[in-house]
């Protein structure tokens, strides 16, 4: 029996789901999803595809921002989870194990330079919160500089960096001493950074708003300014890491070494909740006074460590195919842009991440709906509905690339 099936004859259709379970969910959210035409009850998921309970199949070109970059239920990752559950449970946050050691050793080896110490947590936002705490604790300063229009998650410190609007304003007042810098503008950072700055928090590419790619020399200048002032450089790799920019880590794309690297989403292959902060050792010196200044019951999981190690190895195995795969996708997108340029005004790429610039928000949203109807999931930027983003799975095969291009052409034809 597949997920969402109560028995072999009664598929849990959206109507049946709403009738039986609807009242137990946030009504506003259900209504919003229904109005968009996206109400969906999950069935099986495999590789580049997921299905609903009625067997409708969707090609996943969002991958939940990279959570499913290795494809759904990647066999190597599922095997590691099964093997882990056969012998381990979460384990204790106070104790150590071989699985934890192997993951921490792997991270020290596969991250740049002096990034050496691993702190796993559960979500990306929790990892961001931890990195900011470590920056404040290790520098004994409080000011945090972050990019305008950034998205780093919905917990306390992460939310304090969010662009003003619906997701943040209702929770004000947030944590003090957070300040915006213009993303990609080194002169703006130079004007705002000082010996009061605890950390500068940036993504290698600003993914949420507009997929902004900074100038080539930006991160070298950011690193220099952080070194000069003693501020910690925190790079949020939750989306840009793990092959998304064609390199294992987004910071490698720019050749910069942060003081702290924050990872999540695809880190544990989409089958287990695990995120992490990997730091230079000196970021933790202040922990010597009290090693349990921060704990999280479900952080240092033995099963999660095995799963994450398998996901990292699988990501590394896929890296050599990404340049050619990205080139093919880009060439197809540019051909379509040439043919349907009144609706699709531009195509941008950073590694295996693409932005489609539509004429306006209505056209972007219409494109999403048409693609969903054709069995392809893509998303718009939460801050810019005229920009549709593609995070293709790294395992995509030529037939799936062709299917995507054909369906995209059909959607664009209906729009022009
Ligand atoms: C760049 C970035 N950082 C952090 C997060 C937060 O991750 P999580 O949703 O696991 O808390 C996200 C989530 O989308 C993200 O896109």
Topology:
Elements: E1 5-7, E2 10-11, H1 14-21, H2 27-36, E3 42-46, E4 49-52, E5 57-60, H3 75-87, H4 98-110, E6 117-121, H5 124-139, E7 143-147, H6 156-159, E8 178-181, H7 186-192, E9 197-203, H8 218-229, E10 232-236, H9 250-254, E11 260-263, E12 275-279, H10 302-318, H11 322-339, E13 344-350, E14 353-358, H12 361-373, E15 376-377, E16 379-380, E17 387-390, H13 398-415
The chain binds pyridoxal-5'-phosphate.
What does the model show?
By secondary structure, the chain is α/β, with parallel strands linked by helices. It has a domain at 96-319: Type I PLP-dependent aspartate aminotransferase-like (Major domain) (Aspartate Aminotransferase, domain 2, 3-Layer(aba) Sandwich), CATH 3.40.640. It is built from 13 helices and 17 strands. The chain has helices at residues 14-21, 27-36, 75-87, 98-110, 124-139, 156-159, 186-192, 218-229, 250-254, 302-318, 322-339, 361-373, 398-415; strands at 5-7, 10-11, 42-46, 49-52, 57-60, 117-121, 143-147, 178-181, 197-203, 232-236, 260-263, 275-279, 344-350, 353-358, 376-377, 379-380, 387-390. The strands form four sheets. Strands 6-12-11-10-9-7-8 form a seven-stranded mixed beta sheet, with helices on both faces. Helix 9 links the parallel strand 10 and strand 11. It is globular. The structure holds pyridoxal-5'-phosphate (PLP). Residues 65, 123-125, 128, 151-153, 203, 207, 236, 238-239, 264, 275 line the site of pyridoxal-5'-phosphate.
Given as residue ranges, the uncertain stretches (5+ residues, pLDDT < 50) are none
Order of helices and strands: EEHHEEEHHEHEHEHEHEHEEHHEEHEEEH
Tell how many strands the DSSP assignment holds.
17
**The level-1 CATH class of the domain at 96-319:** Alpha Beta
CA gyration radius, whole angstroms: 22 Å
Strands ordered across the widest β-sheet: 6-12-11-10-9-7-8
CATH architecture of the domain at 96-319, by name, is: 3-Layer(aba) Sandwich
Proportion in helices: 25-40%
Strand residue content: 15-25%
What structural category characterises the helix and strand content? alpha/beta
End-to-end C-alpha gap: 43 Å
């Amino acid at each position: 029996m597949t997920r969402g099936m109560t028995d072999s004859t009664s598929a849990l259709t959206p109507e049946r789901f709403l009738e039986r379970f609807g009242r137990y969910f946030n009504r506003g959210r259900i209504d919003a999803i229904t109005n968009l035409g996206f109400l969906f009850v999950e069935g099986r998921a495999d590789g580049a595809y997921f299905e609903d309970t009625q067997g409708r199949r969707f090609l996943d070109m969002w991958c939940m921002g990279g959570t499913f970059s290795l494809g759904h239920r990647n066999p190597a990752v599922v095997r590691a989870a099964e093997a882990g559950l056969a012998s381990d449970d979460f384990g204790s946050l106070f104790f150590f194990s071989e699985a934890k050691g192997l993951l921490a050793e792997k991270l020290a080896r596969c991250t740049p330079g002096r990034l050496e110490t691993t702190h796993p947590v559960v979500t990306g936002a929790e990892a961001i919160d931890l990195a900011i705490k470590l920056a404040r604790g290790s520098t004994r300063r409080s000011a945090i500089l972050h990019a305008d229009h950034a998205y780093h998650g919905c917990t306390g410190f992460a939310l304090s960096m969010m662009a003003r609007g619906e997701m943040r304003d209702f929770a004000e007042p947030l944590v003090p001493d957070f300040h915006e810098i213009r993303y990609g503008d080194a002169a703006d950072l130079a004007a705002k950074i000082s010996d009061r700055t605890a950390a500068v928090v940036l993504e290698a590419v600003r993914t949420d708003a507009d997929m902004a790619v900074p100038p080539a020399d930006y991160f070298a200048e950011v690193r220099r300014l952080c070194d000069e002032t003693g501020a910690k450089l925190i790079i949020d790799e939750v989306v840009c890491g793990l092959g998304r920019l064609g390199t294992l880590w987004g910071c490698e794309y720019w050749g910069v070494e942060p003081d702290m690297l924050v990872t999540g989403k695809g880190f544990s292959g989409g089958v287990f909740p695990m995120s992490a902060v990997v730091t230079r050792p000196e970021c933790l010196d202040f922990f010597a006074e009290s090693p349990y200044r921060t704990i999280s019951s479900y952080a240092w999981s033995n099963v999660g460590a095995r799963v994450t190690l398998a996901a990292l190895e699988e990501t590394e195995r896929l890296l050599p195919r990404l340049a050619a795969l990205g080139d093919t996708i880009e060439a197809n997108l540019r051909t379509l842009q040439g043919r349907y340029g009144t609706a699709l005004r531009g195509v941008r790429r950073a590694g295996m991440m693409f932005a489609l610039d539509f004429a306006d928000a209505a056209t972007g949203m219409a494109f999403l709906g048409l693609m969903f109807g054709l069995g392809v999931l893509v998303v718009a930027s939460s801050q810019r509905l005229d920009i549709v983003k593609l995070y293709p799975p790294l395992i995509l095969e030529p037939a799936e690339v062709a299917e995507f291009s054909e369906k995209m052409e059909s959607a664009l034809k209906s729009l022009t």
